[in-house]
């Protein structure tokens, strides 16, 4: 069968969609460590992230569940992401359904689809993905042949806004629950939807909205029936005992956080009264140091990532944080990796920890005081003296960082204009102290609007409206405009307005979400794509009471989420709300007496273990000697030199790419090979300087859409390797679609690969009539001048009108033959270099009246000059 005659969804997608989108590598399912099984498995599921691939692939929760499910031999879990707007347009125009990443199977054909709820701002994307998949948006309308839709994640602690669209929710940790769910799917094959839903609702932590009793109160509020059994959240008790993926999927497309994430602990007991994650994740559970070290080493080997991030709500609060960071830094140094801490406590201890792992790049550190006045910090239970911030800032710049970023919130309970203006004053004083250490010190701010979240002591508080948020932001703008050296950054108040409407509402808000989606709302968290007017119109269309959603709640008021039990009791939350109003501090329970929040009644062993571990670590810290007063400091903008050994070997590989990997950009292609070389354990030689990078070079920059078996890659090594073993090691770690054919050792100081290129050979297949193509080829070859228009290099670098120049490419075309093969037209093409210039295949196809999307291009060979006999092709 001809390539152009294939009609599977995968083939149609490759022909009709991939060539026409801006970033096709978002949709390649052949990434390293992605799982591919046959269609004969018992259960097929999709784990769906309702945002772009760029954000979704880095989600650790999804990766953990993906790994656990795919360890079950009878289950295949694939992935799905929200398509970007250009892809959505093509899918709708071409009648193509939304698909799984790995096999390009229509989502509607699976047994179940599980959505990760990371943000309320993705809810319109969920509806859009269901619609694109051809699945009924409302759960009540789904037929027996449609998959069950379930969801979990941080936003599940108020599931009601999505109750009309999701069949069941998983409350809490998912490592154990997801296996029980998969087993239920397997055992319920052939049963009707009602039976399946009834069976799922019996799994601990699963909530099926259609089966839970609700009542309507005065004013139309929907609340759970009080005497019904609550849904208790699932808790993973031992992080060391559960599967944690080291074979993370390695993307081709650059991620927002392009690194390996390693969760070192879960939960937090600091008791910040605005923090939902801290309240719903109790108690604190940690991975052991040995486990973390083993996972870090295996992850580096299995992925080739250049950086590992030690992930938790507050990594500095790990009981043996100093030992953790020292161990991670030592392991990373031996593997040419870097380590990052995404969350830092506001003290000099955190700066010391960051100092251990910063390497040679010291761009900036981030801390979150949240409030600027001592009174308001008492309200939110974040007891940080101003002097602690000043000392931390001095330490940051004393150790050589370039800037400090500070996060604050506006709209916190009891906040006044004085509290808002105190943010400017505190930042100015911090900058003044920092510049005593470093005159070039700068401070960046990130100001967001507070959203009262369910299951926090602030769940009863009012959220300020859109106009009030803008007014307080203007106060800050006026203040910061007088402060040189402070960059004022703020979150768009439209984001928090939309999020606030959803997160505090009952299931009536589902009609608003649906109407906003039908009005065109998509990607509400993205400034470039958000359509706020779609939400404003939806509020008018549905008559939704935005003021009621944002209002203050009575302490005895029944909440839409009262049927869920997160283990922290409502009475304790109510008492802590009163403590906030009294400016009373609630200490961390890890270092003292139990605060009777309610968690201890459910998981007493975990609470006891948490306290014992923390107290033992505190005793160990006190027994350690104090650090030397005269420790070495790194002056600002001074970085340690990299001790790079002299290179000893250079190897040239002939490489290629096939299948979906032909849609990689040049940058993605190079990154994929660099990570493969790291996985293979090659002792790569690195450059010196601020941005050290491995010495890897390529013969050409392959264009998107081109397959090849004739490209070359040179690597320079700091220690010698044997060629047969090197070839085999590299083959073993390549992602699907990338190929390595042969290897040879070349002179260490030989000319660059690109300078040796003499020309290229191609096969090009098209379904255009052979006779017609031949006449075009004959006309082109008989011409003495074939001009193409190219943008000049100068206009690429400068702003303003683009400038173009015409280039005669006829001397670069050596040979073209046309024939018929298997019902297709086959072009054999030889291209050369003329006056240091070459013709691009896209330009050649255009000259022949063909579009690149209507042709399959395959590079047979790159012709290199013989280095010993320059000018003679080898």
Write structural notes for this entry.
By secondary structure, this protein is an alpha/beta fold. The protein is 33% helix and 18% strand. Helix 9 packs parallel to helix 10. The longest helix has 21 residues, at 417-437. The chain starts with 8 loop residues before the first helix and ends in a 10-residue tail after the last strand. The model is unreliable at 627-640 and 869-874 (pLDDT under 50).
Chain-wise SSE layout:
Layout: H1 9-16, E1 43-49, H2 53-56, H3 60-70, E2 75-81, H4 85-94, E3 112-116, H5 123-132, E4 148-152, E5 168-170, H6 177-187, H7 193-201, E6 206-207, E7 214-216, E8 222-224, E9 231-232, E10 260-263, E11 265-266, H8 276-280, E12 285-286, H9 289-303, E13 307-311, H10 321-333, E14 338-340, H11 348-357, E15 364-370, H12 374-379, H13 386-398, E16 403-410, H14 417-437, E17 442-449, H15 466-480, E18 486-487, H16 493-503, H17 509-518, H18 532-542, H19 546-550, E19 564-565, H20 570-581, H21 599-602, H22 604-623, E20 649-657, H23 666-679, E21 696-698, E22 706-717, H24 723-732, E23 738-746, H25 753-756, E24 757-766, H26 770-782, E25 787-791, H27 793-797, E26 804-808, E27 813-821, E28 824-832, H28 841-847, E29 855-864
Parallel strand pairs: 1-2, 1-3, 3-4, 4-5, 9-19, 10-13, 13-14, 15-16, 16-17, 17-18, 22-29
Antiparallel strand pairs: 5-6, 7-8, 11-12, 20-22, 20-23, 21-22, 24-28, 24-29, 25-26, 27-28
Helix pairs in contact: 5-17, 9-10, 9-23, 10-11, 13-14, 14-15, 17-18
